[in-house]
Each structure stands twice: as C-alpha cells, then as structure tokens.
Design brief:
By secondary structure, this protein is an alpha/beta fold. The chain starts with 9 loop residues before the first helix and ends in a 5-residue tail after the last strand. Strand 1 and strand 2 form a beta hairpin. It is 38% helix and 17% strand. The protein has a seven-stranded mixed β-sheet, with no helix packed on it. Among the domains are: 190 residues, Adenylate cyclase-associated CAP, N-terminal domain (Serine Threonine Protein Phosphatase 5, Tetratricopeptide repeat, Alpha Horseshoe), CATH 1.25.40.330; 150 residues, 3 Solenoid (Pectate Lyase C-like). Helix 7 packs antiparallel against helix 8 and helix 9 runs antiparallel to helix 10.
C-alpha cells in the first residue's frame, strides 16, 4: 500500500510499505502506529483485567475509523482539487467524534454487554453511514431533491433499525438504556434539517435525558459503568452540535466544485437489510369504451333532435299533454298512495374503488405472569381481575405491559412499578421505595395502600390515583396527559377528588418566564 504525499492527510505523514514476507496484516501495524505507541511496538500488549479490555476495545474502534480513512483516500485520490483542506476538514472533524465520544460509548457498551452492546453496534453503523454522506458532500456538488432523498436513505434505514430494536425488546432489563438511544438517534437526521440543524440535535438530546435520568437513578449507587455510559452517550450529541455549529450552521454543506453527487454513490445499507418496499398502488380505473360506432351515431341523432326542439321557440310547449285536476296529486290526495317509487337517473361515471384487503388480525400473545430475575413480568392479561404478586423483595420491580380490563395487586414492599400501554387497568399496591410510572395508558386506576415517594404519569388519557394517608407527601409528575384526578382521603374515610391541571398560563415578569396553572370556569 502506497500513499502519495502530495494528497495530504494520513498518507503524507507516514509512508507505508509492506514488509517482505508479510500478509495484509502488516498494513494494520502501520495504521496503528499512527495513533498509539502500543500498536507500533508488538512487544507491548494489553494490560490484563477489565481496564485492559476496555482500552483494547477503544483501540479497535479507533483502528476501524483509521482504516476507513485510508480506504477513502486510496479510493478517491483522483478527485483533484475538490478534496482539498477545507473539504477534508469536514470529514476529519467528524472522525474526531467517532474516535472520541462514540468510541468511548462503544467501549462502555461492551462492558455492559447484552442488548446495550447490540444497540451500540447499530448506532455505530448509523454514524458510519453518515460519515460516508459527509465525505460525499465534501467532494461533490448538491444533487437534485430526488437524488438527495436516495442518498439519505442509508442513514434513515440505520435510524429505523435502532428504533425497531428497542420496540422488539420492551421487556429487556436494560430498556431505559435502549429507550435513551432510540429517542435521540433521530438527531442524525440533521443533514436534512435546514436551516437550523443544531437546535434539532439539541432537541433530540433532551428527549433522551428523560430515560438517561432513569438510568442514573437506578445505577448511581450500584454500578458506575452505567453512569459513565450515560455521560459518554450524551457527549456524542454535544460534540455533534459543536461540529454542526463549526461546519454546517444552516445545513449540510456541499462542495462548490467537483461532480454532482449521484444516487449510485450512496453508501450501502446497514447490516440487517432494508425495510420491505411499499405495497403497489391501486389499479388504474377502467377506460371508457369510445370505439363503438353505434353509440356515437345514436349520440349524434339525440343532439340533432335536441337542437331541433330548441329551435321551435314558443311552439315547443304545443307538444305537451294536458293534465286535468283529477290527475294532479296535490289536488287529488288519493293518487299519492298509488304513486310508484321514484326512479333515479343514471349515475355519473366514477372509477371503481379497489377492494381493500382486510388487514390480517394481529397474533394474540399469550398472557404472562412470572418472575424473571428481579423483574415481575405481567403481560397481555385480558379481563383478569385477580392478578396477585406476593412474596416480593425490595430489589424487585414490576413491569405490566398491554394488559386490558384487568386488576393487579402487589403485596409487600417493592422497588418500582411500571404500567405501559395498558387500558382500563387497576393497580393496588402497598409500598414502593422508588417510583410508580404510568406511560402510554388509557383509563387506569391506581390505589396506594402504604407509601410511595413519586408517581409519574406520561402520555396517558384518563388516570385516577387514590392516595393513602401515609402517601399524601408523594410527588406527582405529569406530562402530555389528560383527565388526571387525585383522590385524597378525608376525615370521614371518603375520598375528595382533585383534578390535576392541564392548562397553564405563562407570563414574562421582566427577568424570567413564570408559569401557573389556570382553571377554566364552567
């Protein structure tokens, strides 16, 4: 492998020549030596232990990025002046994100393993697809909108793959990790968000913090690796905002010289394949048969007769038949009951609607009520009123998903309870030391028998919470929800219903915005 020093970049710093008798692995030694002294000296090996493995994983990530840079330089060396300093800076600064925050995130994801590692590999693929798009933009002129849409497809497919993985693993013990990534990975769509891509990335980063705060809450006192994982992941989007502010303030910057980008130069789709193509459109309406000479001839005779009648002028009424009073329905009521049905005239032409295929019924999932590790899984329960979880422990959690018209009772003291996508669900519990989370639900009722510090209601329509005397000091956090009512016990043992505000008023007091709840007078 030889690099022309006149092209600049990595090839200008080191001349890579294969050693006699070596295979392609000799190239890896040259690439590693550009970044780390350990790779340059084969006598230096990774230190044992988890720290050594983490450094090795980080080294592998940096190595892959460097190999990609060398391949792009060797493959695009004939681009002429379009690959100059300003254009290569766009790519190298993006590589700094992949070698820095993204590599750190990958290393910590490897430590956590499981679904988090699988998810991280998908995120890495999404960044690789975006890097190829930026590299193309740095050496090509902006194409037409149709071609640009096809060039954006690899990044779009990678984002969809990340989000689909989260939906397919809703019962994962690391669901909050997956949700944080899934909610924020659309930030990679900034390449199509002119003229303000930076604020769009910030908005997606803020969406992730709802779930990263949960991760911090769950692991702050347990495992520092997860805390570092949150910091590393959020730093990716912070670095991307800085990169956009420096190079792409009003949108993805394309080269002013060089060839116009083509769809054939789009990067390959991520591993896992592209989504299925859209279904074919409806068939065209049947064409009207105008070839019949008999119908056209009859139409011509009718028109001639019509014009002849019009030309009669006032004499046209002479051909009308006289109707006597005995034949008029408004003067002879007996005729009204004898009148036959009114014939409707011919309907105007309309294209027949294609018969819509009936949607296939969704496969009914089996009901689940089991303890998996430290998580009680309650899923797909339909019309069951006597669901009971007993023999609970402080470290256990309850996760109820897609339960309908059912009632769940949780005895003892438990860490947290989550109701997700449930309808007409009843929940009765004693003590929760963490949080009761109600999300994506409809018409649910929750009764506290003991104590709970926090109740969170998100994206829910219809929620009644019955508090006990010991839980009156709990915090209730709500967002994007409606028809929420808190029922507080009074001295007579009855409950007083108090609605949570849904409408707010915000005013500027000269130094800050002040928001207060408003009441609508009936």
């Amino acid at each position: 492998m030889e690099e022309d020093s006149a092209e600049g970049g990595i090839g200008a710093e080191t001349e890579a020549r294969p050693h006699p008798g070596r295979t392609d692995s000799a190239r890896v030694c040259v690439v590693c030596s550009l970044h780390t002294p350990e790779a340059a000296d084969p006598r230096i090996t990774a230190r044992p232990g988890s720290a050594g493995m983490a450094e090795l994983a980080s080294l592998v990530q940096r190595l892959e990025v460097a190999v990609g840079r060398l391949e792009s330089l060797s493959g695009g060396g004939g681009g002429g002046g379009s690959g100059g300093g300003a254009d290569s800076q766009l790519v190298s600064d993006f590589d700094a994100i992949m070698e820095g925050p993204l590599a750190e995130y990958m290393s910590l994801s490897q430590k956590i393993g499981g679904d988090v590692l699988k998810h991280a590999n998908m995120v890495k693929q999404a960044f690789s697809s975006q890097r190829e798009l930026i590299r193309m933009a740095s050496s090509s002129q902006k194409p037409s909108d149709a071609v640009l849409t096809s060039l954006l497809q690899p990044v779009s497919r990678a984002i969809q793959q990340v989000q689909s993985f989260r939906e397919q693993n809703r019962t994962s013990p690391l669901f909050n990790h997956l949700s944080a990534v899934s909610e924020s990975v659309p930030a990679l769509g900034w390449v199509a968000m002119a003229p303000k891509p930076g604020p769009y990335v910030k908005e997606m980063q803020d969406a992730a913090m709802f779930y990263t705060n949960r991760v911090l809450k769950d692991y702050k006192e347990k495992d520092k690796t997860h805390v570092d994982w949150v910091k590393a992941y959020l730093s990716i989007w912070t670095a991307l905002q800085s990169y956009i502010k420096t190079h792409h303030t009003t949108g993805l910057v394309w080269s002013k010289s060089g060839p116009v980008a083509s769809a054939s130069a789009a990067p390959p789709p991520p591993a896992g394949g592209a989504p299925p193509p859209p279904p074919p459109g409806p068939p065209p309406p049947p064409s009207m048969d105008t070839s019949s000479s008999s119908s056209s001839g009859a139409g011509g005779e009718d028109r001639n007769a019509l014009f002849a009648s019009i030309n009669k002028g006032a004499d046209i009424t002479k051909g009308l038949k006289h109707i006597g009073d005995d034949q008029k329905t408004h003067k002879n009521p007996a005729l009204r009951g004898q009148s036959g049905p009114v014939r409707s005239g011919p309907k105007p032409f309309s294209s027949p609607r294609p018969a819509a295929a009936a949607p296939a019924p969704a496969a009914k999932q089996p009901p689940v009520l089991e303890l998996e590790g430290k998580k009680w899984k309650v899923e797909n329960q339909e019309g069951v009123q006597d669901l009971v979880i007993s023999n609970t422990e402080l470290k256990q959690v309850v996760y109820a998903y897609k339960c309908n018209k059912s009632t769940l009772q949780v005895q003892g003291k438990i860490n947290s309870i989550t109701l997700d996508n449930c309808k007409k669900m009843g929940l009765v519990f004693h003590d929760v030391v963490g949080i009761v989370d109600i999300i994506n639900c409809k018409d649910v009722k929750v009764q506290v028998m003991g104590k709970v510090p926090t109740i969170s209601i998100n994206k829910t329509d219809g929620c009644h919470v019955y508090l006990s005397k010991d839980s009156l000091s709990c915090e209730i956090i709500s967002a994007k929800s409606s028809e929420m009512n808190i029922l507080v016990p009074n001295k007579d043992g009855e409950f007083t219903e108090i609605p949570l505000p849904e409408q707010f008023k915000t005013v500027w007091d000269g130094s800050k915005l002040v928001t207060t709840a408003t009441e609508i007078a009936g």
